[in-house]
Write a structure and sequence with these properties.
By secondary structure, this protein is an alpha/beta fold. The chain folds into 2 domains: 21-204, 3-Layer(aba) Sandwich (Rossmann fold); 209-358, N-(1-d-carboxylethyl)-l-norvaline Dehydrogenase, domain 2. It has helices at 29-40, 52-61, 82-86, 101-111, 133-140, 155-159, 185-193, 206-228, 233-253, 264-273, 280-289, 294-301, 307-322, 327-338, 342-351, 363-366, 374-381, and strands spanning 21-25, 44-48, 63-64, 67-71, 77-79, 91-94, 118-120, 146-150, 164-169, 198-203. The strands form 2 sheets. Strands 5-2-1-6-7-8-9-10 form an 8-stranded mixed sheet, sandwiched between helices. A two-stranded antiparallel ribbon has the order 3-4. Strand 1 (21-25), helix 1 (29-40) and strand 2 form a beta-alpha-beta unit. Helix 8 packs across helix 13. The relative contact order is 0.10. The chain binds 1,4-dihydronicotinamide adenine dinucleotide and 1,3-dihydroxyacetonephosphate (13P). The site of 1,3-dihydroxyacetonephosphate has 12 residues, from helix 10 and helix 11.
Length: 382
C-alpha cells in the first residue's frame, strides 16, 4: 500500500506491515477491549483468560464478567490454555496487572518462538524490584523486541467503539523519523490495531510513556480523594499540574524525555483518569476521601485491579532510590499504606518548601530543584 504521510515525516517506501495474528494475553477488561480492537482491525485474534469461570461465561453468554455488557464475537478464540492462545501468533500483547506480569511473561517466554515481539499494556512499576514493565519483560523474555501501548483509554469505551487515541512506543536504532520506517515495531503495532475509531500515535520514548501510565494511577487516587473530600476545582487543577511535573521528573531520571508527559500517555491519561468515576483508581480514591478505610474502598471496586494501590508504594520507592521528589505520590502512599489522615496529607502538600515551576528543557536540574528551606517555608506559612 503506498504511503500518503505528510511531507514533514520521512516517507518510507511502504507502509508498515500489520501482524496478521495477534494473541492477547490477559482477559481482564483491557485485554478484552484490545482483543475486540484487533478483531475490528481485521486481525485473527486469540484471547488468553486466566479464570476458567470467566472463559466458561464467555462460552455460554458471549460476555466477559470483567467487561460486562459487551458481546465478544465468536471469531475471537477465547481460551484458558496459554499454548493454544499463542499458537501461530506474530505478536503477543501482554495485558496483565503490573504485579503479576513477571510470572505470566516467564510462562509466555517458554511457549513463544524466538523473535516474536511483545506489546506491554500493563500500567505500573513492580514492587520490590522497582522495575518498569518493559524491564520485567526484558528480564523474563531476554532479547525479545517490545513496544509499549498506553494512553487515555477506558476499556468499556473502547469496547463501545468510542473514538480513542493511544501512544505506541518502541525504541529504535535511529531517531524519531525512523518510527515511520517500514519495519519499525511501533509502526507495525500501530497499523495492527488502527481503525476508524482507534488511532495510535507513535513514540520512540517507551520510558516516558511507561512512567506516565504508572504514575497517573497514583495521581487518579489523589484526585479521587480530593473529590471524595468535597473539595473544589482549584485543588484538582493544582494536583494535575504538579502531578505532571512528578511524572516528568521521574521519566527524566530514568532516561525518558520530559516532553513525553505532554502526550496522550501523560497529560491525556492524567486528564481522563483524574476526572472520571469510570476510573477504578479515581473511584477508590473517592471512597477514601469520603472516609472509608483502604480495605473497604477496594471492596467497593470489586475484583477489578486498582493499580494505584500497589503503585503508590512501588513508584515512591523507585523515586526515593533515584532521589526524585514526588510529594503527591508520597502523600497517597502515606494515606493508603500508612494510615495518614487525609487532612494531614493535604496540609503537608500545601505547606512544604516553596518551589519554582520546572523549566521544560531543564528538567535534569529540576530533580534537585532549588526550593525554599523548611524554616523559610514555615515563615511564609506562619
Ligand atoms: N481497564 C482499563 O480501562 C485499562 C486498564 N489498563 C491496564 O491493564 C492492566 C490490566 O487491567 P484490566 O484488564 O483492567 O484488569 P481487570 O481489573 O479488568 O481484571 C483483573 C485482571 O487481573 C488478572 N489477574 C488477577 N490475578 C492474577 C494473577 N495472580 N496472575 C495473573 N493475572 C491475574 C485477571 O485474570 C484479570 O485479567 C492494568 O495494568 C491496567 O492498569 C490500561 C488501560 C485501560
Ligand atoms: O488506564 C486507564 C485508562 O486509560 C484505566 O484507568 P483505571 O484503572 O483507573 O480504571
Amino acid at each position: 500500500m503506498p504511503n500518503t504521510g505528510s511531507a514533514t515525516q520521512t516517507t518510507p517506501l511502504h507502509d508498515p506491515t500489520p501482524f496478521s495474528h495477534v494473541a492477547v494475553i490477559g482477559g481482564g477488561a483491557w485485554g478484552t477491549a484490545l482483543a475486540l480492537t484487533a478483531h475490528r482491525a481485521g486481525r485473527s485474534t486469540s484471547l488468553w483468560i486466566r479464570e476458567e469461570s470467566a472463559a466458561a461465561e464467555i462460552g455460554s453468554t458471549g460476555r466477559n464478567p470483567f467487561l460486562p455488557g459487551h458481546e465478544i464475537p465468536r471469531a475471537i478464540a477465547v481460551t484458558t490454555a496459554l499454548d493454544a492462545a499463542l499458537r501461530g501468533a506474530g505478536l503477543a500483547v501482554l495485558v496483565i496487572p503490573s504485579q503479576h506480569l513477571r510470572a505470566v511473561a516467564a510462562r509466555v517466554e517458554a511457549l513463544l518462538p524466538p523473535g516474536v515481539p511483545v506489546v506491554v499494556c500493563s500500567k505500573g512499576v513492580e514492587a520490590g524490584s522497582g522495575a518498569l514493565m518493559t524491564q520485567v519483560v526484558a528480564e523474563e523474555m531476554p532479547g525479545r523486541p517490545q513496544a509499549v501501548l498506553s494512553g487515555p483509554s477506558f476499556a468499556a469505551e473502547v469496547a463501545e467503539d468510542q473514538p480513542t487515541a493511544v501512544t505506541i512506543a518502541a525504541a529504535g536504532p535511529g531517531g524519531p523519523q525512523d518510527l515511520f520506517a517500514e519495519d519499525h515495531l511501533a509502526g507495525r503495532v500501530a497499523v495492527t490495531f488502527a481503525s476508524e475509531t482507534f488511532r495510535p500515535y507513535l513514540s520512540d520514548d517507551p520510558v516516558g510513556v511507561e512512567v506516565s501510565g504508572a504514575v497517573k494511577n497514583v495521581l487518579a487516587v489523589a484526585s479521587g480523594i480530593i473529590a471524595g473530600r468535597g473539595m473544589g476545582s482549584n485543588p484538582r487543577a493544582a494536583l494535575l499540574a504538579r502531578g505532571l511535573a512528578e511524572i516528568s521528573r521521574l521519566s527524566v531520571a530514568l532516561g525518558g524525555r520530559a516532553e513525553t508527559v505532554l502526550g496522550l500517555s501523560g497529560a491525556g491519561d492524567v486528564m481522563l483518569t483524574c476526572s472520571s468515576e469510570q476510573s477504578r483508581n479515581f473511584s477508590f480514591g473517592k471512597a477514601l476521601g469520603a472516609g472509608r478505610a483502604p480495605g473497604a474502598a477496594q471492596g467497593a471496586i470489586g475484583r477489578a485491579v486498582v493499580e494505584g494501590v500497589a503503585n503508590a508504594r512501588s513508584v515512591l520507592a523507585l523515586a526515593q532510590r533515584l532521589g526524585v521528589q514526588m510529594p503527591i505520590c508520597e502523600a497517597v502512599d502515606r494515606i493508603v499504606h500508612r494510615g495518614l489522615p487525609v487532612e494531614r496529607a493535604i496540609a503537608a502538600l500545601l505547606t512544604g518548601p516553596l518551589r519554582a515551576e520546572p523549566r521544560a528543557l531543564e528538567h535534569r536540574a529540576s530533580i534537585a530543584h532549588p526550593a525554599l528551606s523548611a524554616p523559610q517555608a514555615r515563615r511564609v506559612f506562619a
